[in-house]
């Protein structure tokens, strides 16, 4: 059989590259919104993300999902989740490189941009562990509504140290956070939650109820919503109490999910579970929205990372695979597809890092509206992009070994997590209606590119007309959210991207010269240069 199995025209492993510095769009965004020193500080992480070792961690973490142990051998309830050792390597790498809560304790003026660039580069290795990393990052601003609790837990949440295991939180150098918002009868309608909280004489509360989705149940601290007489309220719930005893935290089962296989998502039962109030009674939704605004930022970052990972695989394959007498990357129609994917990736990356810069600069009004629109659009586009990248690899892309099936299963998650498409589109309308400052901040951002391209100017006018038509706004919410995100992406690319990228974006996304299917760029597009810019070269 040896003579019939000589391997030729196959693609070499994509290892040894730098997923951060080797990505022109990402590295330029980092320098633009921070500086060259910030980019340099991520060199070790970028090289690790492109290494064979890290890619093997990602594979093993997904092929060996977490396991729930509700009881020990003697029948004692323990409610522990076991992870493969590589999960902890992924978590340790993320936390030690400052991708969790570290920016909130940093004096670096670009701490959140640095973290966002690192997150986008690193999570291309494996997306599932990004969930607890994200929640640890996002919990800090919400917890600050309760200064005493923040003083107790923030040092551990912002530490660059990963420690796994159930121990009293103030005795651990590094803490991981989770969240328990939704319940089976309400889902996104958290005001329908049935979990109740009853005050105790010592100032704590006893929580009783069932949480439908509690992510990362082995975390040290959770923000949880429960009902008081005043309405839905927010509580901090630790797994282990200050006296060292375990809180009542019954993990009923782990969810069997489409993707995100490495991460444990669970149903949890509270029965007199101890928690402490965060913020004011009855004001739980505004309190936890502080956390959700940050997790939505990571939805955009994670989707941009997924798009970039798929694009990288597609270009690498096309550069090394030949068909019909030429390399795939030199075939005109393949260039059309790859260039279209590259423009999508650069637009997503530019907008994601701009949102992180808004956190550094305290632009809360801009982030409120732009973040919601970006979350809707970038996340919504990701499954189609990954599917197209998979087609570049053909049958090889449909095989698990390629890594594309894992990306494909992961692709819809961020469009569902922290508010699915309809919820987010309606939230865009809510931000427009309730905050004149948010609209003004976004308009100011769009004005920075006014006059640079007729198609962009027309798109902004069309958006203004959509907003001015008050009839049936909820029915048109998705269209408005998408148009807003596209205008923001256009503004950024016109100001910062190479002319070929910006022109192609305007032609294909704003000018109506191409169809909705990727790979239908208009004739004359400088596809070769766009593809060259987007690729990475392994040494």
The best one-word shape is globular
Task: Tell me the fraction of residues in β-strands, as a range.
Answer: 5-15%
Strand order of the largest sheet: 3-5-9-7-6
**Cα Rg:** 23 Å
| Name of the CATH architecture of the largest domain | Beta Barrel
Q: In this structure, how is the largest beta sheet organized?
A: 5 strands, mixed, barrel
The tally of structural domains comes to 2
Q: H/E order of the elements? A: HHHHEEHHHHEEEEEEEHEEHHHHHHHHHH
- The unreliable regions are none
Helical proportion? Answer: 40-55%
What do you see in this structure?
The structure is a single chain. The protein has 539 residues and is of the alpha+beta class. The chain folds into two domains: 24-282, Butyryl-CoA Dehydrogenase, subunit A, domain 2 (Beta Barrel); 286-534, Butyryl-CoA Dehydrogenase, subunit A, domain 3, CATH 1.20.140.10. It is 50% helix and 13% strand. The chain is built from 19 helices and eleven strands. The protein has a five-stranded mixed beta barrel. Strands 1-2 form a two-stranded antiparallel sheet. The chain has a two-stranded antiparallel sheet with strand order 10-11. A hairpin with a 2-residue loop joins strand 6 (221-228) and strand 7 (231-238).
Task: List its salient traits.
single chain; 539 residues; alpha+beta; Butyryl-CoA Dehydrogenase, subunit A, domain 2; Butyryl-CoA Dehydrogenase, subunit A, domain 3; 2 domains; five-stranded mixed beta barrel; two-stranded antiparallel sheet; 19 helices; 11 strands; globular
